[in-house]
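Researcher: Let's run the pair from yesterday's discussion. Sequence first, then tokens, for each.
Model: Starting with the first of the pair.
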Amino acid sequence: MGVPDVMRAVCVTRHGGPEVLELAEVAVPAPQAGEVLVQVSAVALNNTDLWTREGAYGSPDDPDALSGWRGPIDFPRIQGADVAGRVAAVGTGVRGDLVGRRVVVDPAIYETAGLDAHPVGLMGSERDGGYAAYVTAPAERVHDVTESPLTDDQLATLPTAYGTALGMIERGRLRAGETALVSGASGGVGLALVQIARARGARVLAVSSGSKIEAVRAAGAHDVVDRAGYIPAQVRASAPEGVDVVLDVVAGELVGEGLPLLREGGRWVIAGALGGYEVAFDVRRLYLHNAQVIGSSMHTPAHFGLLMDLARRAEVQPVVAAVFPLDRAVEAQEELSRREHVGKIVMHP
């Protein structure tokens, strides 16, 4: 397939509000040795897009420092971690038969080459991403999903949300027959947690509110507690024997209030801070019950491989809430920030 010299892309020019997003014509990147060039069919939005744009991640030394996902950003930066598309060209050392294949890109930048490596960077923050017609990626991070029955829009929703969810479930060692509590269940990661935990054979309790409750139940939750009420009391009523694993993207007050809900040896896995990043809890509820609080940042290469197997077999059914063209990126991010949707928001470059 022919590749043009220039393309449209949405760049972040500095940290700030939606006004720092700029639609521009830029050069199509050339795949370097060991890389492929992917023509983007769909790119999904994530809260990481908002927080990277705002510089909201802080640093270990300064919680208020302006920062991308894992450090300072080189501007201008093309956003977008979640890409589905087709391989348009390959760099030296990469198999030519990949050209034309339908792929999903693992957006993580890993600390080492091993299957259990931790992510230390993210496409769209530490390197250019998929708010563009084309994006480059290391060949080993591009997964062939040509035969998947999922649509390109559905495939694009998988990397960050479902990758994060699967990483949480793996690190939390959730097993069939256990009870899992999912916070923030109507969001991208939350809905993914509900679907994957249900597929694992767990009993799934979810936290949501209002009109979203039925959508969360339809995604596979056995029971849904209302965020507008007192969550611990509702969970105790639904699961009087306690919860084995909490899969939490909210944190904040929920951790201190909810830690006594864990059964002996329970695990509380945190991968977000929608409810606040400062947490206080009674440490006796931790050590006296052999409980664990586990931090989980995205996925490992091994986790992502498991996720792509699920995608090829369509064992998860991602929910696409809305689709925008690339030139409405500002509107798409504003829609994301309102958090009134269920599922994922996708753009078409």
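Model: Moving on to the second of the pair.
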Amino acid sequence: MDDLLDAAARLIAIRSTADRPGELSAALEYVLGRVGPGFTVERFLSRGKPSALVHTGGTRPDFRVILNAHLDVVPAPDELFRPRIRDGRLYGRGAQDMKVAALVMADVFRELAPVLPYPLGLQLVTDEEVGGYDGTAHQIDAGVGAGFVVIGEQSGLRVVTESRGILQVRLHATGTAAHAAYPWLGDNALLKLLTGIERVLTRHPLPGHEVWATTVNVARVETPDAAVNQVPAAAVAWLDIRFPPEDRAYAGRTREQVERHLRDLSGLEVSVDGFGAPHRADPDSREVGLLRAAARDAGFGGDLLRKHGAADGRFYSARGVDAVIFGPGGDGQHGPGEYADLATVAPYRAALVTFLRALR
């Protein structure tokens, strides 16, 4: 554990955010160094985002299992890149999401890949926090596939077989500029925009508790005006929409169909910036059963879990490959108090080893 904690502290100290390509590469190289020599490392690069696929042998095999980990993190103040341990918790940006899990996966791969009776892959990416299109999705487009995928996102050793889809859109309103003293001479675009947002929120009201339903976050509202004494002639809102497979207004639809639906709903022009399908794996599959049993052997319940956030498993799910999220515990993801629960790290490693050894 001491060796792992030292490695985790070093990895957390690397500011591997999307705007720092050098640090993304540094984080990738650090984990590849942890894996060590004697393996084939395939390197990928898409739009400045590096990733790697590690396996045994010279030719890429048909993987029975891929362990998937992302090494990028969301931005944070300087102090969150100075990891600290307190009360059995490792605090720092990326401690929970998901640098500790990435190191555990690297260690398990190093130990088991040479001896398992099937091909095991380790997939390391650096763009999950900004969509995953240049890491996991890029590798899949390049022909990487597997029979089953374990993504090390945090789950408290529960097995995540479902997660909601993601839709990121902008609503656009236009009007007529005027002097603020004579508003009747103008047409306020911002007021139109707020009316359109209200229509969307009426269809998808903000829940007061956890629900498995479509939710909408209004992330930004802005106009190009620099003066307060102007009637805005243009305004835009940024929305983040998360939806389950059951919501057929979004799930199973094309970008154009979703755009049309939101245009009719809001009465505004719509731009779709990001659109990812919900993720689902068969909860009754043999692999999920073995992984749940391995979690129970490690002292946890092996429960199934639905996740509200999107992860890279959706890219495999879209290709008909079962992918689950299975990671250690912690809390505070993307927040100032993010931490990994160190009491779950050794059981998490043990569960991965048990699962991979049991699988044939």
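Researcher: Give me one sentence on the second I can quote.
Model: Residues 14 and 171 are 36 Å apart (CA to CA).
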